[in-house]
Task: inverse folding
């Protein structure tokens, strides 16, 4: 008899089978599903054909809510005039295509890859203009003034996004998202286009150089280490209060129980 | 003070419960006043002969010597760890510098860990010591009623009455009353001395520093802004009066937000004469308790104060929609100057910020 | 001579020659301290205070309590070139440029939070066990005072670095003070030395924080401990424990060792927290500026109830004759906390008035044996807790994806409904636990041994509870006594004079509510040995303890057959 058969009544046999089954399902699932886009009509696009390809992608992914010509429907607003920057922001953060019509669209894994995103953005820009996608040198925090960025951020951004961009609640189920995963480009674009409930900070209100200062502050402060220990979420006294009650008092109550426990005489 | 001073092995009075399975416990003793035979050498007068050894109230050693030996080693181990950690603290202090975020992190970690281990080692060692090395005892001490005896109260009353009579305090009302009168102004003096802690409020809460023609500066870079440059509907920015960008006292009342609307969105009670090109200016100081009410939701046109969630309707004169604020945000009259920069027409037409008694 | 003898002859004699301390110290050495883990909660507060003093002194060596504007060019480069007050800059300096500075700052702040948490836990223990009764009312009042002082001390302390988060708190303080009718604007201008923020508030808070309040607290703590020593500590009910004795282990060496160990635990726990849990990272908040604010701004948790009250309150305001009554501000700021503190302060006297109980109490109540008091305490905690949670409503909204205004609406109703529900639930639970105790006394402990009787019936053998448990279960001697008579009528039907007027009738009513209890079984508690479950489940009826009233004795079969 094979060694597997000999162990078919082993106490752990059942668990082993279940575990193997789970692993098998996981492997098969991962092999079968793909991340990113399934067969999107991605012919290798040359620059000039970006708009055409973008229109194709738009029709596949966006027109059901935004209308065949991006004129808007009951489910989604018109995109005419929003600009490539807005499209790039929404699609690269995965907010669009939106799963459902809720209070707000959260960040999620993007469905389109970068080239496809730029193609859709080019198509939308061709419909009505609007802010363009910023170039890398426009958004780089290198050489920017993080101190001025801090002042601007605290004055105009922190009331929604929290001191370091940990996010915050708005009314009616909306929220200002955390900025922990936003790229410099996305931060720039968000300021420029004012997605969803966020106000618009165009380039004449907060100049491009000032936007780079803000980007420098956000990217630096979120990566600055926490010298005092674990950050507890960087949301302040609420978590500190929880830790002092459950961590501090809890530890000390256990200590008190140990000190005062009566030893049983055996 | 008479104590019970009985034989040391009296059990405390038991309840009227049934004799059931009793847990063995440490020998129970009643403590009392030491008998003369128990006088310590501390007060030795020198020439008394050694008194007979008195019965002990506390045993000298724990019951199980083997367990005690094990506990002894455990205690010693805890204390040795604590000692090493203590030295580690000093070494870490000397060895790890700061002046940088990462070095501060390392320093805090090193100092904190060594300190924690040292303290907790001491704590654990002491706990094992007291639980496993010291013999277990349970002693009884008598309580006396807290009220003094009648005799003591009587004597106190007599002494106090005699002394009060001798003081003449009760018998001579003129002396008493003038004494009280003399101490009253002295008692008030410390309160009076506090007057110069601050100026009288006067009318200072009714005004800010905004004046006609004062430019609105974008706070941070502190640059003026043209109406034409603030042209995207849905835009919002914080502005401060020109000349006061470093003056926190002024900013605490004068900080303002400007919001750009699309044509037709602004409605009464927004005062249209105080707007320019669909740009409206509201005081940023919340009318509840003064936090900056700065959270502008572009889609709903709500201004939300993050402190206590007072919500204001921006296109309609910042009237209160929800939350504890009782009054809308005051609107700052703005216009443009000759170069197109946004300037104030005048100060706010009502006091900004939290309500106060004299506000009206 | 042994070492001990040598020391006594040398040092001991030196002191005693001058101070006559032998007898007094001997009494002290043998002073008995009862043992229970909940008795150490007050020690957490005490040792946290000691640690606050130690770490605070270190901080004062480096902190500059000045609001003078400076431009920062120090170690934390994210704030390079930023304008800030000297207070803030010196705090950055302590954190990043003084070795051990950050650790001391964190221990100080964690100790402050722990101090307040321990005070609350300790206060609740005192309340639920009835330790505030005569003769300890003075200590209770001292404790409530220290609670208030502790809150102020913490508020002023964390405002000293003048960062954006705590500065917002000062702004709210200013707004609250302004709302006070008649004197509000004057008080505000005097405290801040003029308009907000001014130049004076930080130095003034500094001296209040390092000198005035610590001095008061030291004096009150000393008085608190002295009274506790003088009156001897209370003890939990148990075998042999009466109101006339104290049973436990002596101060030297037992209690001294235990309390010493516990000091190191408290200090060690605080050091552990300060190593691994960052608290008050002011460099992230940035310096205070009245134009800036962050979402999710909360004060430290012990001020959270005030914050929640301010958020939950509707916008009530009344303008009349040129004056504004800002109800939306001064009601939430003063009333809820005022109710809690006033209620706490008068409770011992209220309870003794209602119960008519003026005896000394040194044996504690089990909370279940005072169901109404326990229920009222839980209701108060619920009231406090709901407002505390509302203070974090934006964090809760963000983390749990609940709409913001919904939370506030829920809190507006829960503030009033919650305590009522909590009262009813807790009282029922306490009475249920009392029934369980009565059942145990009546029927004994199940042994798991099944025996078949000659007639075929199966019973489970029970044994009576142990002596220790018996003593605990029957510890009712310290409960509130009922006032005489259901209607106050004496034998001749003449009404009790005290029950004639409104206050007297109220007192009788309250007394009946407060003394609701499940009576102890009247059998000898021997247990019938034949188990239970002979028929309908027994339920001990609840009575008000009326001696003359309809006292339903312990229900069910009261037979106590010997096994």
Result:
């Amino acid at each position: 008899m094979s060694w597997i058969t000999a162990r078919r009544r082993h106490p752990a046999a059942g668990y082993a089978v279940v575990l193997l089954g789970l692993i098998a399902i996981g492997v098969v699932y991962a092999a079968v599903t793909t991340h990113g886009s399934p067969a999107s009509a991605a012919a290798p696009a040359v620059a000039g054909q970006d708009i055409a390809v973008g229109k194709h992608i738009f029709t596949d992914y966006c027109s059901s809510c935004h209308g065949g010509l991006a004129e808007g429907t009951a489910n989604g607003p018109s995109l005419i005039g929003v600009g490539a920057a807005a499209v790039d922001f929404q699609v690269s953060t995965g907010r669009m295509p939106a799963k459902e019509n809720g209070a707000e669209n959260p960040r999620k894994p993007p469905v389109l890859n970068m080239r496809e995103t730029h193609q859709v953005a080019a198509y939308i820009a061709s419909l009505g203009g609007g802010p363009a996608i910023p170039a890398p040198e426009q958004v780089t925090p290198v050489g920017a003034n993080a101190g001025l960025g801090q002042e601007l951020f605290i004055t105009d951004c922190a009331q929604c996004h929290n001191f370091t961009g940990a996010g915050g609640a708005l009314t009616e189920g909306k929220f200002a998202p955390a900025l922990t995963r936003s790229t410099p480009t996305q931060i720039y674009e968000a300021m420029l286009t004012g997605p969803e409930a966020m106000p618009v900070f165009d380039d004449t209100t907060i100049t491009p150089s000032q936007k780079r200062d803000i980007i420098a502050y956000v990217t630096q402060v979120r990566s600055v280490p926490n010298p005092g220990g674990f950050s507890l979420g960087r949301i302040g006294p609420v978590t500190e209060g929880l830790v002092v009650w459950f961590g501090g008092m809890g530890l000390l109550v256990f200590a008190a129980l140990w000190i005062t426990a009566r030893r049983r005489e055996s | 003070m008479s104590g019970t001073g009985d034989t040391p092995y009296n059990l405390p009075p038991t309840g009227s419960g049934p004799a059931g399975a009793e847990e063995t416990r440490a020998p129970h003793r009643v403590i009392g006043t030491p008998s003369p035979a128990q006088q310590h050498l501390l007060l030795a007068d020198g020439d008394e002969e050694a008194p007979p050894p008195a019965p002990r109230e506390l045993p000298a050693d724990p019951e199980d010597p083997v367990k005690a030996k094990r506990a002894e080693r455990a205690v010693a181990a805890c204390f040795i760890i604590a000692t090493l950690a203590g030295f580690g603290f000093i070494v870490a202090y000397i060895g790890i510098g700061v002046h940088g975020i990462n070095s501060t992190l390392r320093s805090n970690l090193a100092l904190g860990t060594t300190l924690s281990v040292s303290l907790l080692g001491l704590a654990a060692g002491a706990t094992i010591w007291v639980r496993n090395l010291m013999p277990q005892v349970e002693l009884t001490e008598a309580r006396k009623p807290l009220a003094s005896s009648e005799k003591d109260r009587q004597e106190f009353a007599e002494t106090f009455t005699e002394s009060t009579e001798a003081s003449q305090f009760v018998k001579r009302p003129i002396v008493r009353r003038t004494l009280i009168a003399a101490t009253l102004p002295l008692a008030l003096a410390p309160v009076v001395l506090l007057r110069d802690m601050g100026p009288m409020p006067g009318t200072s809460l009714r005004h800010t520093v905004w004046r006609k023609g004062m430019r609105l500066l974008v706070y941070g870079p502190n640059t003026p802004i043209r109406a034409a440059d603030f042209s995207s509907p849905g835009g919002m920015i914080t502005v401060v009066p020109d000349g006061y960008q470093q003056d926190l006292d002024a900013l605490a009342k004068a900080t303002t937000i400007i919001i750009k609307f699309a044509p037709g969105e602004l409605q009464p009670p927004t005062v249209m004469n105080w707007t320019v090109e669909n740009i409206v200016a509201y005081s940023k100081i919340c009318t509840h308790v003064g936090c900056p009410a700065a959270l502008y939701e572009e889609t709903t046109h709500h201004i939300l104060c993050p402190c206590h969630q007072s919500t204001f309707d921006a296109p309609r004169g910042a009237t209160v929609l929800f939350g504890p604020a009782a009054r809308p945000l005051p609107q700052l009259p703005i216009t443009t100057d000759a170069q197109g920069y946004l300037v104030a027409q005048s100060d706010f037409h009502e006091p900004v910020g939290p309500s106060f008694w004299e506000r009206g | 001579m042994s070492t001990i003898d040598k020391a006594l002859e040398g040092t001991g004699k030196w002191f005693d020659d001058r101070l006559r301390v032998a007898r007094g110290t001997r009494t002290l050495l043998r002073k008995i301290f009862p043992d229970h883990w909940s008795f150490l909660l007050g020690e957490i507060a005490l040792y946290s205070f000691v640690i606050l003093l130690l770490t605070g002194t270190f901080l004062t060596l480096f902190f500059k309590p000045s609001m003078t504007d400076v431009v920062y060019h120090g170690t934390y480069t994210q704030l390079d070139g930023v304008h800030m007050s000297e207070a803030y800059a010196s705090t950055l300096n302590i954190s990043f440029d003084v070795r051990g500075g950050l650790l001391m700052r964190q221990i100080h702040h964690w100790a402050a939070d722990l101090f307040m948490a321990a005070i609350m836990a300790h206060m609740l223990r005192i309340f639920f066990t009835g330790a505030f009764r005569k003769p300890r009312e003075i200590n209770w009042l001292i404790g409530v005072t220290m609670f208030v002082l502790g809150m102020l001390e913490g508020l002023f302390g964390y405002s000293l670095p003048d960062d954006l988060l705590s500065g917002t708190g000062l702004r709210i303080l200013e707004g609250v003070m302004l709302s006070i009718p008649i004197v509000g604007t004057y008080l505000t201008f005097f405290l801040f030395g003029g308009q907000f923020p001014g130049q004076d508030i930080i130095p003034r808070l500094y001296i209040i924080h390092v000198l005035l309040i610590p001095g008061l607290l030291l004096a009150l703590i000393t008085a608190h401990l002295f009274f506790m020593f003088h009156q001897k500590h209370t003890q939990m009910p148990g075998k042999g424990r009466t109101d006339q004795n104290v049973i436990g282990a002596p101060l030297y060496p037992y209690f001294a060792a235990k309390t010493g160990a516990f000091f190191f635990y408290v200090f060690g726990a605080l050091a552990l927290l300060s190593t691994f849990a960052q608290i008050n990272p002011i460099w992230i908040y940035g310096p205070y500026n009245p134009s800036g604010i962050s979402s999710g701004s909360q004060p430290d948790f012990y001020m959270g109830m005030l914050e929640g009250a301010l958020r939950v309150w509707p916008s009530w305001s009344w303008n009349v004759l040129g004056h504004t009554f800002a109800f939306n501000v001064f009601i939430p700021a003063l009333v809820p906390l005022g109710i809690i503190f006033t209620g706490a302060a008068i409770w011992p006297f209220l309870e003794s008035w209602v119960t008519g109980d003026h005896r000394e109490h040194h044996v504690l109540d089990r909370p279940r044996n005072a169901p109404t008091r326990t229920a009222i305490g839980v209701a108060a905690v619920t009231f406090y807790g709901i407002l505390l949670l509302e203070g974090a409503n934006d964090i809760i909204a963000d983390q749990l994806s609940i709409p913001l205004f919904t939370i506030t609406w829920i809190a507006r109703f829960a503030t009033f409904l919650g305590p009522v529900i909590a009262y009813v639930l807790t009282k029922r639970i306490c009475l249920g636990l009392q029934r369980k105790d009565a059942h145990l006394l009546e029927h004994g402990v199940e042994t798991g041994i099944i025996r078949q009787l000659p007639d075929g019936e199966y019973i489970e053998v029970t044994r009576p509870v142990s002596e220790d448990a018996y003593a605990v279960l029957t510890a009712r001697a310290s409960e509130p006594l009922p006032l005489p008579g259901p209607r106050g009528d004496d034998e001749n039907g003449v009404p009790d004079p005290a029950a004639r007027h409104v206050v007297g009738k109220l007192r009788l009513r309250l007394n009946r509510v407060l003394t609701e209890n499940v009576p102890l079984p009247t059998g000898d508690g021997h247990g019938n040995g034949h188990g239970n479950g002979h028929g309908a489940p027994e339920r001990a009826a609840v009575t008000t303890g009326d001696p003359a009233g309809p006292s339903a004795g312990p229900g069910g079969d009261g037979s106590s057959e010997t096994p």
